[in-house]
Amino acid sequence: MFLERLKDFTKHIEECRYTTESGTIDHKAALQEAVKLLHMTRDRGGIVYVVGNGGSAGIASHFHTDLLKGLEIPSQTLYDSNLITCLGNDYGYEHIFSSPLKLMMTPRDMLVAISSSGKSPNILNAAQVAKEKGANVLTLSGFQADNPLRKLGHLNCYLGCTEYGLVEIGHSFLLHTITDYLHQCKIK
Fold first, then answer.
1. 102-136 pLDDT per residue, tens
2. What pTM was computed for the model?
3. Spacing of C-alpha 98 from chain mean position
4. 2-184 — its CATH code?
5. Of 92, 159, 164, 187, which is most buried by a Cβ count within 10 Å?
6. Nearest to 125 by CA among 141, 102, 159
């Protein structure tokens, strides 16, 4: 079972699709684009906001930690329990990320939006606010190729898989690859 699952995971990573506003790019160009967006954010004095739900929230928190501690790139998640429950109660769960981003996000910033389905309203709203604010957006999604999140990023990473576990592991793998690449190149 483990080896078969590893083969499935490898296949999904090999078939990952990367798009920009200009069209499809290969994995090398996608890695370079992700690095460019992160450097641009850091060099402009911006903050990388990272959001996701459930398992994707765990991936978001881990990526935030890697950016902040390992790469010294300012980053932030919006997972304070008081904030989430207050905004969810007062405005609806679909606004728990977009409401604070409306106040805090600037064009110097970047949003990393992670959603296995690419259909989570709170993630879509956050990405829309980031675009409206002129910030760069990196999306990671899965499930259906026509999911709406894939249309909102400057760089979109899509895994054509419908299994949460494999999509989440894939997203974690992609983000680790970005941070590991930056470490190996000693780019800080």
1. 999 999 999 999 999 999 999 999 999 999 999 99
2. 0.97
3. 15
4. 3.40.50.10490
5. 159
6. 102
